[in-house]
Write a structure and sequence with these properties.
- The protein has 2 domains: 93 residues, Rossmann fold (3-Layer(aba) Sandwich); 116 residues, Hexapeptide repeat proteins (UDP N-Acetylglucosamine Acyltransferase, domain 1).
- The protein contains 7 helices and 25 strands.
- The strands form 4 sheets. The chain has an 8-stranded mixed β-sheet, with helices on one face.
- β3 and β4 form a beta hairpin.
- α2 packs antiparallel against α3.
- The structure holds coenzyme A.
- Coenzyme A binds next to β24.
């Protein structure tokens, strides 16, 4: 192989993970026409070398999920199917270790105290997969604790979501399939977008929020922290949503909200005397 072909291969190599290259090899072996984009079938021996034993091949980053409950297992299925991370197992607090299985989905469940030092020393990424309990405070508390320890966080964006290149996405964010995050929108840390939400252009979403499913946030909205949006909730454009807002399922919000309040109905009205932090999400 000439110098130019090797250079070209090294250039392509930076864009693919080990699993991508293995898939490319298999496709090539099955149907050499599929290799046409590279136009250099003679590169195959080099690809085999680079994907198996070359020090140049980028190795997959390891990942642990904090939590072992329902959301943790769902997150695990998405991360492992995506194949970008080498998923190592779940982490739970020592206090609940006795009431939790030793393995979940075939992966080991580790006690926090036994693994935290390793996570920090090896700079291994963690995803905190705790649902919306207490308006996301439970998840936020763990996120802050791990952050203070020096942990790094993963973010998951489904390949079936549309996220504008002009949008910004924080850490420990999980974006399920069929979400649309438009031009100029931002989503801060530790926020969950379950499937099918619309985050309109230039809307700013704070930290520790939870969007159930099929929520529409129209353009130019500003959303604080610790909010919860029930399924099919709708927000018209240019709203200011205070921290601790809970918008009920199917509700249509036409105006701004007050801190730590529950809104329901169409048009949505404040449910007086209801503390969102005491709502139990089933
Ligand atoms: C808003 C919500 C949290 C209120 O829960 P709650 O505080 O336990 O309230 P209750 O069920 O006791 O209902 C209180 C009143 O509000 C009404 N109400 C509750 N949710 C409503 C909603 N989304 N829209 C309109 N009215 C609603 C109830 O009918 C009830 O009316 P009543 O007093 O006349 O009988 C809850 O109904 C909700 O919408 N949860 C979100 C569910 C969801 O989207 N889950 C997604 C899971 S991924």
């Amino acid at each position: 192989m000439g110098g130019i072909a090797l250079q070209e291969f090294l250039w392509w190599q930076q864009y693919f993970s080990r699993s991508d290259w293995c898939a490319i090899e298999l496709i090539w072996m099955d149907n050499s026409a599929c290799f046409q984009p590279f136009g250099k079938p003679e590169l195959l021996p080099f690809i085999l070398f680079f994907t198996t034993c070359s020090p140049y091949t980028p190795s997959m980053e390891s990942l642990y999920i904090f939590g072992a409950g329902e959301f943790a297992q769902i997150a695990c299925s998405y991360f492992t199917e995506e194949g970008k991370y080498d998923f190592k197992g779940f982490v739970i607090d020592d206090e609940i270790a006795e009431s939790t299985h030793i393995t979940v989905m075939g992966f080991q469940v580790h006690k926090y105290s036994e693994i935290v030092n390793k996570l920090i020393e090896t700079k291994t990424k963690v995803f905190v997969a705790i649902s919306a309990t207490q308006m996301n405070k439970s998840r936020a508390n763990v996120y802050f604790r791990l952050k203070a320890e020096g942990c790094r966080f993963a973010t998951y964006i489904s390949p079936m979501a549309f996220v504008s290149k002009h949008a910004s996405i924080g850490e420990n964010v999980f974006i399920f399939e069929e979400n649309v995050v438009q031009f100029g929108a931002s989503i801060a840390n530790n926020t969950i977008l379950w499937s099918g939400n619309h985050i309109g252009h230039q809307s700013k979403i704070g930290s520790h929020n939870f969007f159930s499913s099929h929520v529409v946030v129209s353009g130019f909205c500003s959303i604080g922290d610790y909010c919860y949006f029930g399924v099919n909730a709708t927000l018209v454009d240019h709203l200011n949503i205070a921290s601790g807002t809970l918008l009920g399922a199917g509700s249509l919000l036409l105006g701004n909200t007050e801190n730590d309040s529950v809104y329901i109905g169409s048009p949505a009205k404040k449910l007086s005397g209801r503390d969102p932090y005491k709502v139990v999400f089933k």
